[in-house]
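Data availability excerpt. The first of two example chains:
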Amino acid sequence: MPTLYTMPGTCSLAPNIAVAWLDAPVEVHTMAYGGHKKADYLEINSKGKVPAVKFDDGDVLTEASAILEWLGAAHGKGTYGRDTKLGRKEAEALSYMTSEMHATYGGHFGPQNFAESQDAVEEVKRKTYEKLANQYKHLNDVLNANGREWYLGKRSFADTFLYVLERWIEQTPLSIDDYPALKDHRARMEADKGVQTALKRQDMEPIG
């Protein structure tokens, strides 16, 4: 049985939720924070990041969007096929969230990686939050345009990563109250039994 490696507070929550939604035959192994830097995990994923899936044959798949696509293809029973409109839009949304927005969060989680002086670090943080504010507005606008219930109008794996981003906003000076569609979506996700299962497996609590 494949094993999904997760860690509290990380974007590995997205494929964890997908596993729960699909009731996929995947074992979820949650490491304590910092476990991603230990030798036994680095043998699995030398990038030292989560998520990762290790298969029975020893193959390893990393990156949240790639793992979500594999889960959909292997266990989604055609629901998330890339030959459908929903599947195409899901791929587009996940690409934006996992590359554009996740990269922007680098200026929040590690501003010292982009600047040396304290003044420069503060400037990186300020520009990061300006960019995130515009990106959250984009997400809120898309959700509104698609009926507010699900990001793409129907439930998809885009909702799993959107929920991660809706949690992360609490770590920034931004307020989810400025994005009412996202706030409602986060509450709806936290009422979902699959999300609750994934949170428990990952030693996390609801935020809303």
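And the second chain:
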Amino acid sequence: MRQLYESQRVMRNMRRSAMQRGVVAIIDVGTFKVACLMLRFDGRERRSEVDGVSSMAGQSAFRVVGAACTQSRGVRLGEIETMNETERAIRTAVQSAQKMARVRADHAIACFSGATPRSFGLTGTVNLTDIEVTEHDLARVLAACEVPDEAAEAEVLHAQPVNFALDYRTGLSDPRGQMGKRLACDMHLLAVDPDPVRNLVHCIKRCDMELSGIASSAYASGLSCLVEDERELGAACVDMGGGVTSISVFMKKHMIYADSVPIGGDYVSQDIAMGLKIPATTAERIKTFSGGVVAIGKDDRQMISLADGSGDREKDDRVVSRSELIGIIRPRIEEILEEVRKRLDIAGFEQLPSQQIVLTGGASLITGLQDLAPRILGNQVRIGMPLRVRGLPQAASGPAFSSSVGLCLFAAHPQDEWWDFQSPTELRARKPLSRAVRWVRENW
């Protein structure tokens, strides 16, 4: 664990150095697309670390000066499968964004959705050396959190305290300066398989850039799509990407659970291609422009051309009704939503004061999803758009870019750094503890 935290600190120092130079590249490596945003930090005073973190924290510190997107190649289920193809796609996106921004970035911050994310709920308790809580006491209680054996050899992406308790008082967000005798902490730790992370780091280096930060796309999407009240009272962000559907649950402005479903929008396109026996590119076009999940009366009479421009007259004359197309799409979307529901049930989502669910990602744009999703996930469901940030092009403001925009906010003010004190002792692997949201049921 020591090496993992040290590697995070090394990237953190590089990120600060890059921000001082003024330009950082944001790279979202997805199964369907690779997006790149160029951020210019204008030197404005960012929110002080003693003021807390809000949904708008750090937003005024940067401006998007370049943006580009290209088709992803060599990525499957959010993980790099073919290094050369992925490198080529990243280079294309980065060079296009640099050309638009007329500036070169040597450092990048990336997010991805694969590597089998696993959430752990950790707890630690210490007696105070003095009556007043200091940063040294926070470092001791964070170091006292017991790390499960399963996470000991994994790559830690995010580790954030979600609740502090001082003597009989709980629900504290920052106990520094308060008086007490015994300090307890509940921490959420998100760990992933290390090999996909190493592959991503190596791929970024092959693109002549240094990786200065890495985040889960589930966490980034939650930062950009959930409003402050939702993150405070409890909400889930479901990012329906091309290969993976990422899930993050927020409470008290912190992520307390994350998971993923290895099914995404590309599976819908594959179903259409196999069901109608058409090329994948034609299936993607039909899904985008004519797809849906809720049929109405006139869909039986609305015909969709399956022409693929091959020149074969017999194939180009084929048509299919929209109701038949919906019959192919809907079962796969229902499967995704059912899997999301199962994971939310495992996380204890029903215990949160608010049970708002926000759907985002490219696959959330399919027609009729807002009517179908409440039947499976619950009544409080909406389609989420990413937060508007300065300089963001209109073409990059849709749900498909939620994780990219969230990564911009993460780059400007990552919450993990907030609690990065030099611990007096190293974290040690011990017996597994309860799941990530146990503290919610006990304290709220």
